[in-house]
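Ticket #4471: structure export looks truncated?
Reporter: QA, pipeline team
Priority: medium

Steps to reproduce: submit the single chain below to the structure queue and open the exported record.
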Amino acid sequence: MKILLVNTLDNYGGAARACYRLHKALLEEGIDSKMLVQLKTGDDWTVLGPRTDMERSMGKVRSIIEKIPLKKYNINVTFSLNISPFSPVVERINEINPDIVHLHWVNDGFLKIENIPKIKPPIIWTMHDMWLFTGGCHYDEYCDRFKKNCGRCPVLNSNKENDLSRKTWNRKNKAFSKIKNITITTPSQWLTECSKNSTLLKGGKIFTIPNMIDTNVFKPFDKIKARELFGLPINKKLILFGAMSNTDKRKGLKELKEALYKIKNINDIELVIFGSSPPEKEIDFGFKSYYLGRLNDDPSLVALYNAVDIVINASHQENLSNVIMESISCGKPVVAFNIGGNPDMIDHQINGYLAKPFDTDDLANGIKWVLNNPDYNELCKNAREKVLNNFDKKIVVKRYIELYKEILKN
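Actual output as written to the record:
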């Protein structure tokens, strides 16, 4: 069985990490797997990147072209049109001729919508956000217009019916009608339900298969040693928050700040932030804060999760957060809003706390509940067991292999 996984990047971002983990797990199971990317930064020979300097340069050009129509819209989040010409990805997929092509996150100029029906092998498409069934946004800010045909897009701050979101929706609708053999998978129950309620994917073959994690890598580690590695204080309760951007409202930086201010009378708490550097204008969270920037290698992430006492995810919309999964795999309770794929991983008051959506009072209550819990060690144990029983790579990869076999059999 020859599988080709396709993702724009090889190791940066949540989708890339999830795709690469699946790729490695397939190889360990003896499956002939390759990964095809637009931008390759690692040195894994089983990951196929651009073959020439020209292909590398054209990838950068396509990325620029993608963003030109968006310049007239005042947005600071990812919105993908997939309009860029000159992408060799479909020709290369057909040249490799796998038994199944497994698409993941293929934006930023990598795969033009109109070229998708030209892919010859059967397609599995794993969604890592809402893009596949929207008019271009990756998260819809709860507008639900994907249940119709988009237009008047709030992400674009648009009041026009026939805006870029409607035009992109129409392009997808036309292209998808030509695809003969496609199976959709989503990592979370929430995204599966969204897909089934969308006009673009309604009635299709949609399965829920979670992302996976290597529990032999992401595991509990000595807290004091972990703190020493980062130069963090030994005698404080440390809260961890991860965000790739200080400007993306979806990540909930505002809600985090409000919740922390409600507990600022607690003296022994300090905040650790990773995924972004300190902003130009310092943010007052009410506590001393440490910015650790981007950590892309697993050992650094494992050490960081083990260095803290609690992890906060304040996102407004979330599929199946790598941060949450990595945290609980390291035995760290997570406090998050009860949205998206969060309840797939967090069992309320068993291995963490699910706050009422966007209620910063309840988010603050959750932080206090975890940090002051007399059964804190039991929360940590439950967090670890949740991952071992549901998200370990050995469990999840078998579900994908079974799906591959079923598709080939039919």
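Status: closed, not a bug. The export was complete when the record was re-opened. Leaving a note from the reviewer for reference: The chain is about 35% helix and 15% strand.
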